[in-house]
Amino acid sequence: MKKILTLTAILALMCVMTSCGDKKDDNSQSGSSVSEVSTTSEASETTAENTDTTQTETLSTKAETSGSTAKSVSTSATSSAQNNDSKPFLSATEGGVVFPSPVEETSDSDLIAGAQKLFEQACEMEWNFTVGSPYEVDQNVSVKNSYGWDCYLVTSDGILSLEEVRLDYHKIFSEHYEDHLEEVFTEYDGRVYCLCGERGSDIFYIDSEITAVNSRSDNEISFTVTDSYSDDDFGGGSCVKEREFSISKDSDGSWRVSKFTLPY
Length: 264
Prior knowledge:
The chain is α+β, with helices and mostly antiparallel strands. It has helices at 2-85, 108-130, 162-169, and strands at 90-91, 97-98, 137-144, 150-154, 185-188, 191-194, 205-216, 220-229, 239-249, 255-259.
């Protein structure tokens, strides 16, 4: 009987030990799972940090690139402004040109550029004012001028006197230039009348070019203008004519035409 009890006790003790061993193994496995979860969490945090760092670096790079672009645009704008400052001449608001530097410090090429512009404007102005009319006219209303020629009523707004005609003409021609507008325009009874003469231009004319600076002073610059023609009046073939062209500085500081011959 004692042997049976002893055997039973031993079996019971073995069962208890086996059970404890199983629990220990379970705890060990559970510990491994916790460790794995912790490791995974740390890896996720590291990845997130790396991602944030990468995004931050990318944004920083983009910002730097954007800054470089802005700097480039700014540089271009500055360069453009400098180019504007370096123009050989500027067009005056009321006609004529202005040279940025004193005449004695301005190169021949810059003076020629300004003179070429004025010459072309003078050709257009002279043609418009002496051939036809630069203004609207009513050809049903006319008077005779001092030469006995018919002149027609100017109907354009603001043109009621010969003085107002001169103001338009002398936007290009200097105040020192002697015009002959009274041969084309006449005043009568508070209105202005225009001759509206017509003629053809020189069919052989090609172009004109300012080719040299002859002399310069604070108030006047003289140039040579070369007019080119495909033929002359005698069938002698192509030819060039050289004439003097001058500009003078007016009281408003602008340079305008003071000596000129229409080449066609």
